[in-house]
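In the current project phase, the collection of sequences with tokenised folds has grown. One resulting record follows, to show the layout:
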Amino acid sequence: MYNILTPQAFVFMPTALAIVTSLFILFYISFTSNFHQTHLTFTHFSSFNSTSQKQVISLLGSTQSGGNGNIQSQRHMELNGKYVNDNEVFHDRDSFMDNYKEMNRSLKIYVYPHQKGDPFSNVLLAVDFEPGGNYASESYFKKVLVVSHFITKDPSNADLFFLPFSIARLRHDPRVGINGIKDFIKSYIFNISHEYPYWNRTNGADHFYVACHSIGRFAMEKVIDVKINAIQVVCSSGYFVSAYIPHKDASLPQIWPRPGGDPNLAPYKRKKLGFFAGSLNSPVRDKLLEWWGNDSDIFVHFGRLESSYAEELVDSKFCLHVKGYEVNTARIADALFYGCVPVIIANHYDLPFADVLDWKHFSIIIATLDIPLLKKILQGITQQEYLVLQSNVLKVRKHLQWHVSPVDFDAFYMVMYELWLRRSSLRLQ
């Protein structure tokens, strides 16, 4: 028998191995070429035309507003261009409706009692007028809550306990002011924890307070238990705000109450592609002005408007919410009220009622990094897409409106539902 492993055979083995390895590499490159093409499409997005950009956004799908990457806008397209929308504004409408009924039937809130003669009754009691202005949400909630069927006078029946101090009114009280809010809250928690047993049972975990002014996020720095344990229902609901803890805390919609009925203008009559008006008070707004300050389709104003604010909103297809000093402003609620599709340019914003409402069905969310792409993104939205978005805006705007006498599914009931969800999670712990 011949020995096939002759010395001559060893000479040819490296050559044979090299050939086999080369063939394997060529096969691998051919097999994975589609993947590499897709990856290159993401990497070199900025050099593509508008159609290519739409395809890339479709491949990426919906993303969180706080995500990273070059393209972080929420869209509603599949790769083949077919529109995807279930014509609903809820994540799960059936579950929400069932839970809403149970919340309405069973949720009970105990409010720590105070009298009109108390030294700080102006801070602790509900206002005796109809709230207005930029921070009205805080006053509206308390005014409606204290006369609602959710209130119980028996703390043993309470699911949650309301801390009724008003951050906005503390701010304007000359006895307290901005610099004295932290000490006031510290003293208030000390008093109720010594006068009542309820705070100490859970170290404040079944307690909540409501604040819309951004000062509220600093107010708890001398009472760490409130910051860590209590439910904070606040307008300044940014993921990167140290005082805000998503899922424990809840986002309060900042709503400037507007008079009259729900206005609307037919979509085809809205002349402007995009609109923004506000103060130049953040790097994000600086960037918006730099890119779109002189554009003929996106109208960006940082001074006096030639026409009224309401007329501008009604005349625009998309209304921009751009982060200022905080992630929150009343512009989202304004856009919805006037039938304009909100474009949210604010990273890491825990949007109001996001546990229930599916924001990608009635808004566009764009990372601040993508401000240079704003116009192409908005122009890339088809007429069919826009009509569905705008139709959903009209469906959802009732959830971001206040009423002195609450109406089912309005802002008050939606806040109560968010509290009910957190009360349920407390019971599971």
Remarks:
- The mean pLDDT is 82.
